[in-house]
Design goal:
Order of helices and strands of chain C: HEEHHHHHHHHHHH
Number of helices of chain B: 14
Oligomer: heterotrimer
Shape of chain B: globular
Radius of gyration of chain B: 23 Å
Largest interface: B-C, 95 and 97 residues
Chains: A alpha/beta (402), B mainly alpha (287), C mainly alpha (256)
Structural class of chain C: mainly alpha
Mean pLDDT of chain B: 86
Shape of chain C: globular
Number of strands of chain C: 2
Mean pLDDT of chain C: 87
Low-confidence stretches of chain C: none
Low-confidence stretches of chain B: 1-17
Number of helices of chain C: 12
Order of helices and strands of chain B: HHHHHHHHHHHHHH
Number of strands of chain B: 0
Chain lengths: 402, 287, 256
Amino acid sequence: MIMIDKPSQTPKRLATALSAVAATIAISALLAGCGGEQSAPAASPQSFSQVREQARGQTVRWWMFGGDARVNEYVDEQVVPAAAREGVDLIRVPIADTAEAVQRVTAQKRAGESDGGRVDLIWINGENFAGGKEAGLWLEDWSEDLPNSELVDFEDPSIKLDLGVPIDGQEAPWSRAAFVYAVDPSAVPDPPADFEGLLDWVRENPGRFTYPAPPDFTGTTFVKQVVAELGEDRAFEYLTELKPLMWSEGERFPASEAELNELFANGQVDFAMSFNPNFISTAVDKGQFPESTRPLLLEGGALVNTSYVTIPADASSPEGAQVVADLLLSPELQAIKADPEGLGIPSVLDPGRLNQRQRDLFIEATESPYLLEDFGETSVELPADRVAPLEERWKREILSGG
Amino acid sequence: MEARDPVRRLNAPGGRSSTWRQPGLLPALAVLLLLFGGAMLGALRVSLIPLGDSSGELTLDAWSGIFADPSFIDALGFTLKVALIATVISALLALLLALTLRDRGLIAKISGASPVPVPHLLVATIAVLWLAPGGIADRVLGGLPIDPVRDPGGSGVILVYVFKEVPFIALLLLASLGRSVKQREEVARVLGADRRQVFAWVIWPALRAPLLLGSLIVAAFTIGSFEVPLAVGPNYPQTLAGWAFEATRGDLISGESEAAAALLVAGAIAVALAAVSVRFARDVEGG
Amino acid sequence: MAERLWKAAGWLAVGLLIVLPGLSLVLQSFADSWRAPSVLPQEFGLRGFEIAFSSAGATAAGLDSLLVATATTMLCLLLAWPAARALATSGINRSPVVVLLIALPLLMPPYLAGFGLTEWFIRLGLDGTVTGLVLAHTVLALPYVIVILTFGFGSRLRELEEMADLAGLSRLRRLAWVGLPSNRPALATAGLLSFLVSWSQYGPSLAVGGGRATLPVVMLPFIRTDPQVAAALGLLFILPAMAVLAWAVRSQRNPL
C-alpha cells in the first residue's frame, strides 16, 4: 500500500499533496467564463508544433461514457470550442461502457487496419488499458511529450502506474478519482469511521447496507478497499460476516453503482459509494439524492486513482488526438473541471509546477457541502493482476458461499 | 413422417433443389451470405485466435476454457430454463391476446401491441421503477407480494420478456388472421361446425406457423440477449450472453475469445432449435 | 354478462400494463426530483428534455435514425419480396436449409455482431458510412421481412395472380393491382418490424457506424444512470415508433 502524504497546512498543501488537494480546488467564476484566453503553454517542444500543424483540420472522435450529463456538458461547452480554436473538430462519441470503444479498436486490428481507425481518443479504465497495452493497441511515447505534461508529476506513482501498470507514455492523465461514501445524516446521525465501525453499525441496522457485486467497478473497488485496509484473508472473513446483515440478507446485490444509487434514493439502504468524489452533488442535481446527503470517508482516507485518455495506434487523427489530450491538461480546462459548482473533479496537475497565474485559476475554498475538504490519508489501488483473482474469490466465497 | 418418404418427396411439387434455383431468392441470399456469413466466420475466428497472441495460430483454449468453467455451465442451464419458461408463457398468452384482439377496434389493437416498439432495456427500467423494493408500487401499496428484481429464480427476467414478447407474437398472429380466415370461419359455421371445431379446423391451422415462428424468434432472443438479465436478472447465475458480456467488461482482450465462444454456443442452441422446429413443421404439414 | 366482464378485465389490463407504465415514463421525463417515499415526483421541470436536445443531440440523432430506418425498410422489402414469393411457391417446408440460412441473423445473439460484423464491415470498407449502417441493419431485419411476407403469399394470392394473368395484365400492373394490395397486412407487419429492428439497434450501430450517433446510441448510456434524461430520450424514441405501429396495425385490415 502506497501512502501519499497527508496535507498538513494550507500553504504547503498545494505544493505537496496533489491528489488530496484537488477536490478542494475550484475556479473563480470569472475565469470559467472566458476559457477563450488560453495561454500558450510555456515550453512547447519543437516537435509538438509540428503535431499541432498536422492536427489542423483533423476530426477527432473521442469515445467516452455518455451517461453523465455534466461531463458531456463540460466536453461540449469547454473542450470542443477549445479544440476548434486549434483547428481540430472534436466529436464526442457517447458510449455506455468503455469496453465498446476497445472492442471497436480490436475489430479494426483484426481487420488488419494500421491507420484510419474511427476511434481517436478513449477515456479508458485501468483494466482495459492494461489489456490493450499487452496487445499493442495504443499509440506509444506521446503523453509525456505533451507541452502541458510539464505540469504533471509523472514520477508520482498514482500517475505513473495505472492499476499498477506503467503508462509508458501511452496514455495521458485526465482526472483524479477518490472513493467516497454517501450518507444522509438524518438517517445515519453518527456514521461509522472505519470498517469495524461499519460492521457494528450494520449489526444494529441489519439490511441497510449493501455494495455493488464485483466485477462491477464500484463493487470491486469497495472490496479492494477492504482488502487494502484489513489484508486479504481478514477482508474475506469480514465480507462473509457482513453478508447476512446486508440488504436482502445478502442474497441479492445491486449490479452497478447506478443501481446502488437507486436503492439509496428509494430509501432501501443508507450508504452509497462512488469513485467519483463529486457523485453526491451530481445525484442531488438530478434530484435523486436528498439535499441533506453528505460525503464520508472510511478508515480516515480514500482509495485514489487517476483516469486517463489513450490514443489507439491506428487512430485516423493521432495528431489531433494529442492536441486534445494536451488541451485536457491545460490549467484552464482542468480548473473548470475542478470547479465544485460544476463538475468538481479533482485536477491531475501538480500544483508545485503551476505558476502563480495558473494557480490562481484554482480556488481553494468550497462552499459545497457535497465535497470533502480533503481525502485524508489516501491509498493507491491494488495492481491490475490482483483484481481478477479477488473478483474470482469474491464470487466463490461471498456470492455463492455463505 | 410422410415427408421423409422418398416417393412422396419425389412427387411433391418442387423438391428441395428447386428452391435454390428460384432466381427471386438470389439477391436476398447473396446479401445474407456475404454480409452475415462473413461476420459469423469472423466471430468464429475471434473464438479461435486470441488477439494478444501474435503467432496467429488456432487454439481451442477459449472453448475448453468455457466448458471447464462452472459459472458458464450454470449460465447454460439458467439460460435454457428462462428461455423455455418465457417462450411458453409468451406463446400461450399471445394466442389468447390475438384471439381477443382480432374482433376489437383499432385502439384496442394498438394498445395491445404497444409494447412492441419499446426497447427491452426501457421496459426493464420501467419494471424496476415500479417493482423494485422501494419502487412506486411498493410506495403505493406499502409492500409487494412479489420481488422479481434480481430474483435468483429469474422471475424478473421472465416477467419483462413476457411483457415484451406477448404483443410481438400476437402481432404476428394478427397478421395471419386476415379476412380470408374470417370467410372460411363463416363457411365452416354455415356447414354446422361448433366453436371448438371452427378453431381446430380453420383458426388453428392459420395460426400454427406464425405461432411457431414467433416462439422460435422469442426463444432465440431470450437465449442470446443480455440487456434484460443484466438489468433485472440475478447476480448468479447469469444468462449465456450476460456471461459473455461480463467476460469482456474488465479486460476486453483476455475475455474476447471466451465471450465469442459463449455467444456461438448460444447461437448454436438457437439454430438447433430452429432446425427441430422446421423439421417439426414439415412433419405436421406433410401429415 | 360474461362478455362485459371479459371486456372490463381487458381494459383493466390495458390500464395496468400499458397506460400506467407509459404514464410513469412521461412523469419521469418531467421529474426533476422523484425519490421515495413520495409516490409522485417532488419537482417537475424540463431538465430531461433540455439535456436530450442539447448535449445528447436528440434532433440530429433522431434524423439519422429515421433516415437509416426508412432506407433499411425499403431495402428489406425490395430484397424480401421476390425471395418470399420464391419461398412461397416452392413451399417453405421443402427447403429447410434455405430457411435456416435466411433465419441465421435472427438466431444468432445480437452481441455477437460486435465480434464478427464490425471486423467484416471494416474489411469490406463499409464501416462508418450511412450505407454501411443501412446494410448492417438490413442483414438483421431481412429475416423477419422474408418470413412474414412468405406467410402472406397464401394460395389466395396465387389464384388472384392467375386471374390477373388471364386478364392480360402486365407484371408491373399485376404487382400494383393484385400483389401489393392483397398482401398488405403482411407487408405492413414486415415493414413495421424492419423499421423497428433498425430503429432500436444499438450494438451494431455503434460498432459498424464507427461513432455515428443514432437515437439508441445516445439514449443507452443514460438508462439507469440518469433516469430523467433516459425517459425523455425514451419518449422521443417511442413516439415515432408508435406512429409506425399504429399505421401498420391499421394496414393489417385486409382489403381483398
